[in-house]
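#struct-help
A.M.: can someone run this one for me? Single chain, 155 residues.
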Amino acid sequence: MSTMDLAAPRSPLAAPRRKGPNLEKWGWIYMRVSGVLLVFLIFGHLFFNLFLGDGIKGIDWGFVAGKLANPWWQWWDVVMLWLALIHGANGMRTIVNDYVTHSGTRRVLVWALWLAAGFLIVLGTLVVFAFDPCNGVTTDSVFWEQCQNLPAPRL
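D.P.: on it. Structure tokens below:
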């Protein structure tokens, strides 16, 4: 038997280790932790909204207004919103990094992803905490009597 020399496998040159936090590692960990939390939050959201009470027939403007008047549900929805948007933006960032080869295009797309996620987080948080079901209700509305008994909204 003759021995055959094998050439060294081709491997890309490894970039030198940067100083500071390993953002890819922390992004990977975030995806796993937020995924588990989101499963709990989403199934809890569905359970309380659909299985308790009247089910899908019970979800209307009054149900949402009552739910968003409760601080517990406000924070539940905001945590779910923040985790889902950051989770989704981080997943899209990973896809962009994997498939976009031009560094300038990649940078623009990643910035656009984070700007869109940040805008939606701010907008969604404002909707949850500044929601006023009686805004614009007049005396001829079916909600007039209900709105007279509600406390003033907190901003």
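A.M.: thanks! The first helix runs from residue 23 to 51.
D.P.: also worth noting: Residues 134 and 146 are 9 Å apart (CA to CA).
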